[in-house]
């Protein structure tokens, strides 16, 4: 496909914090043309996309009607709905979009479906082949931090004994009470078995297993099992956050943590810590992401994002820009890729077997 296909015709699916960021990026980019907008909320249905995005009128009206979206002539859908329980709850719409001839770039997981077995990957491959389309799950984490940055860092080592990646996000500015209390588990009883073993750890375990398996597969090690090792942080005081109130003693921080066991040892540890109070003990000096590789040599890498200047008072945070950016950058690549699952090339990582590298 050549540049003569531009602008790419884009459908935006959902206008939450990430979706509004990708929507504005589409509206602002001369190579991209918005042709459709799917929303969930009754308040937004029927409104012009420009109105929702605080941009000039576009003539594209938000709809809640899936069939209207499926009927559109579009190159790609930027699929950024809220992640649901169970993890598979968006499968039907992703499959329908792929079958209708639209490439899909999603922030709602689906980074490496084969992590959950060949059948799950085949589900998407079949739909993609029927529609002549491509699916790509991306975002910053999962998406970039583990699968690109940490994986690439291992290529600086002659030997890798273990890798750990730690995320610490201050989520106190997140606006959605449904997301903060229902999907993140904030405000819950920190000792509840339901919290530590129920739908939330299953959801995040399923999502992040894809980043873990992608990384270990690219390195070429065989994971015996992934061990959960979660920690809940109770609020040390009553908190008034953007989404509501978190009472003292209820969950004000969650650390979803997994160890990938290789050769009987912890080879890759991923911890995803979301906090509603920057003063929680042990978390005050944390970087957004810290990558540690133990090996020869060892590597310590820390990554922080900086909020851009905000002259018009918009509340878009650096994390939302960083999640949106890989989605936007992927548009031409995914639209021009052969049908199936899209996968980015991997820079030369460390691998235990040289014969594998030559294969
Ligand atoms: N990989 C990464 O790095 C990364 C980072 C951040 C977020 N994410 C993922 O990106 C997605 C969007 O994040 P966000 O911060 O934009 O979330 P958000 O602000 O909570 O917005 C999500 C949007 O989903 C829509 N929605 C409402 N009810 C829904 C339902 N029952 N099912 C599905 N969607 C519903 C709404 O769209 P309307 O307002 O248009 O009606 C809502 O605004 C989430 O799945 C999140 O997990 C990934």
Supply the key terms.
359 residues; alpha/beta; 6-stranded parallel sheet; 31% helix; binds NADP nicotinamide-adenine-dinucleotide phosphate
Short characterization:
The chain is α/β, with parallel strands linked by helices. It contains eleven helices and 15 strands. The longest helix is centred in the middle third of the chain and has 21 residues, at 199-219.
| Each distinct ligand | NADP nicotinamide-adenine-dinucleotide phosphate
Helicity range: 25-40%
Average pLDDT, all residues: 94
Residue windows where pLDDT falls under 50 for at least 5 positions = none
Count of separate DSSP helical elements: 11
* % residues in beta strands: 15-25%
Notes on the protein architecture:
- Strand 11 and strand 12 form a beta hairpin.
- The protein has 359 residues and is α/β, with parallel strands linked by helices.
- Strands 6, 7, 8, 11, 12, 13 and 14 form a 7-stranded mixed β-sheet that branches. Strands 2-1-3-4-5-15 form a 6-stranded parallel β-sheet, sandwiched between helices. A two-stranded antiparallel ribbon has the order 9-10.
- It is globular.
- Helix 1 (17-28) packs across helix 10 (318-336).
- The chain has 11 helices and 15 strands.
- The longest helix is centred in the middle third of the chain and has 21 residues, at 199-219.
- The site of NADP nicotinamide-adenine-dinucleotide phosphate has 25 residues, from helix 1.
């Amino acid at each position: 496909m050549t540049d003569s296909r531009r602008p790419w015709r884009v459908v935006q699916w959902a206008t939450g914090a990430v979706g509004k960021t990708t929507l504005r990026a589409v509206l602002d980019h001369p190579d991209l043309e918005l042709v459709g907008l799917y929303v969930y909320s009754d308040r937004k249905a029927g409104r012009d996309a420009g109105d929702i995005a605080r941009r000039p009128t576009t003539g594209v009206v938000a709809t809640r009607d899936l069939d209207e979206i499926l009927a559109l002539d579009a190159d790609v859908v930027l699929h950024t709905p809220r992640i649901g329980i169970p993890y598979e709850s968006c499968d039907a719409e992703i499959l329908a979009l792929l079958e209708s001839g639209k490439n899909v770039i999603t922030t709602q997981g689906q980074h490496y479906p084969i992590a959950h077995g060949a059948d799950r990957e085949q589900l998407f491959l079949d739909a993609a082949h029927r529609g002549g389309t491509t699916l790509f799950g991306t975002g910053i984490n999962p998406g970039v931090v583990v699968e690109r940055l940490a994986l690439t860092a291992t290529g600086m080592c002659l030997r890798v004994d273990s890798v750990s990646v730690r995320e610490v996000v201050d989520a106190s500015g997140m606006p959605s009470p449904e997301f903060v209390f229902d999907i993140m588990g904030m405000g819950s009883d920190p000792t509840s078995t339901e919290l530590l073993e129920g739908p939330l750890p299953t959801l995040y375990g399923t999502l992040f297993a894809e980043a873990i398996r992608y990384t270990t597969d690219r390195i070429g090690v065989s994971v015996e099992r992934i061990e959960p090792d979660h920690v809940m942080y109770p609020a040390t005081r009553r908190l008034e956050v953007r989404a509501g109130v978190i009472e003292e003693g209820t969950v004000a921080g969650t650390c979803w943590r997994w160890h990938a066991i290789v050769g009987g040892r912890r080879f890759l540890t991923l911890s995803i810590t979301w906090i509603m109070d920057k003063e929680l003990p042990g978390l005050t000096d944390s970087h957004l992401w810290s990558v540690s590789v133990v090996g020869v040599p060892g590597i310590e890498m820390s990554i922080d994002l900086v909020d851009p200047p905000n002259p018009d008072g918009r509340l878009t945070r650096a994390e939302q820009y960083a999640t949106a950016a890989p989605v936007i950058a992927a548009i031409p690549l995914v639209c021009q890729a052969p049908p199936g699952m899209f996968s980015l090339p991997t820079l030369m990582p460390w691998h235990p077997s040289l014969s594998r590298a030559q294969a």
